[in-house]
Amino acid sequence: xxxxxxxxxxxxxxxxxxxxxxxxxxxxxxxxxxxxxxxxxxxxxxxxxxxxxxxxxxxxxxxxxxxxxxxxxxxxxxxxxxxxxxxxxxxxxxxxxxxxxxxxxxxxxxxxxxxxxxxxxxxxxxxxxxxxxxxxxxxxxxxxxxxxxxxxxxxxxxxxxxxxxxxxxxxxxxxxxxxxxxxxxxxxxxxxxxxxxxxxxxxxxxxxxxxxxxxxxxxxxxxxxxxxxxxxxxxxxxxxxxxxxxxxxxxxxxxxxxxxxxxxxxxxxxxxxxxxxxxxxxxxxxxxxxxxxxxxxxxxxxxxxxxxxxxxxxxxxxxxxxxxxxxxxxxx
Length: 332
Hints:
Elements: E1 2-8, E2 11-20, E3 26-31, H1 38-45, E4 52-57, H2 80-94, E5 100-104, H3 106-113, E6 118-122, H4 133-147, H5 165-174, H6 180-184, E7 189-195, H7 203-212, E8 216-221, H8 232-239, E9 244-254, H9 260-271, E10 274-279, E11 285-292, H10 293-303, E12 311-319, E13 329-331
Parallel strand pairs: 3-4, 3-5, 5-6, 6-7, 7-8, 10-13
Antiparallel strand pairs: 1-2, 2-4, 9-11, 9-12, 10-11
Helix pairs in contact: 2-3, 9-10
């Protein structure tokens, strides 16, 4: 581990980082999510993307990068944009110019605001969802208690546990940041990976981000919010599929007897996709799709909507390594 000082708005931030696989001509920067640290990202990705030099960073207030205590004196409440500016300064101090930033959850928001032009999002935060009634009631009760100067720590969100006073204020601010416009106005090249069983940032949040970012592609993998911990090699393989894709797709829900296969055929013709579609005995629809990377990404994204009478519950996408042998798209 190394430490590096970064001065931001008159405050000296001491950032802890790991440099791994040094000497490569390309750089990849890994940002952890809220409450996590560089070690988690290192353990996940240290054996993948080995054509890049890796930088694993503890963001201020996490891991071994202190903030709000231990001599880091500041009353400023950092937001995601502040974190991005601090990271930009850190990378500039190391002479790291062009890089791909991999951001998990909160780290994904920071990555979207940095100066780099390519990002890999892992179950990124940024889509604000309406809080369940119970959570809203807990927040209201906590505010009432605050008026009477009564502390109720048990009402804090799990992600706020163990935070010092400064970082708790940061948490309350960043958790409500809406990145809708930032995603929609992005000019970055973005690869989005998501866990199908993610409950912290549900799958439809990833699909929404994909629909907002013009130059993006979307991949859903098995797993929860930390799906990437055991699937870094799979992520690397899917990320490097940049020219033509051949994928196997299963669509679940009310998708038979509602015109879904005709809908899929029309989509394939619109996007220039080769392959086939058929109904399976378990009530799902099976699709084989082959085409250029961007067209397959748009095709698979549209499959989530379905025909007017369909009710799509889940779309599972699995890359196929061998080359496809199709000349058209057909209904089987």
